[in-house]
Design brief:
Layout: E1 15-17, E2 21-26, E3 29-39, E4 42-46, E5 56-61, E6 70-80, E7 89-96, H1 99-114
Antiparallel strand pairs: 1-3, 2-3, 2-5, 3-4, 4-7, 5-6, 6-7
């Protein structure tokens, strides 16, 4: 029997729990989902109807404790079909995000990971 190698997380940015309702727009259709994790490079949103990989969306996000929200252009890079042990959803990679918005996310993640 061959020993299993531990999986290595190759993500560039640290992630943290982020339990917020996120509004996103698929072309002109407004949708929403429950976010579960966020990093400076992306977010995972639970939704019963994930969009296909490659689809572009516009997200409206706000970081807890900050007064103003911001808009981000993102691409669906992973879809998860729901089942007994996991909720359906999609991983979104941020493509166009203002540097101050990315800084807010990095600060939020840093604070959540240290807690």
């Amino acid at each position: 029997m061959t020993p299993r190698r531990p999986q290595v997380d190759s993500r560039i940015h640290a992630r943290a729990p982020y339990r917020e309702t996120v509004r996103y727009f698929d072309w002109d259709r407004a949708r929403s989902g429950q976010a579960t994790q966020i990093s400076a490079s992306g977010i995972f949103v639970c939704t019963p109807t994930p969009l296909p990989e490659g689809r572009m969306v516009t997200l409206r996000l706000s970081i807890p404790g900050k007064s103003a929200g911001f808009t981000v252009l993102a691409r669906v890079v992973r879809t998860v079909q729901g089942g007994l042990l996991r909720e359906a959803g999609m991983g979104l990679q941020f493509l166009d995000i203002a540097s101050d918005a990315r800084g807010q996310i990095e600060q939020y993640v840093s604070g959540r990971r240290a807690a």
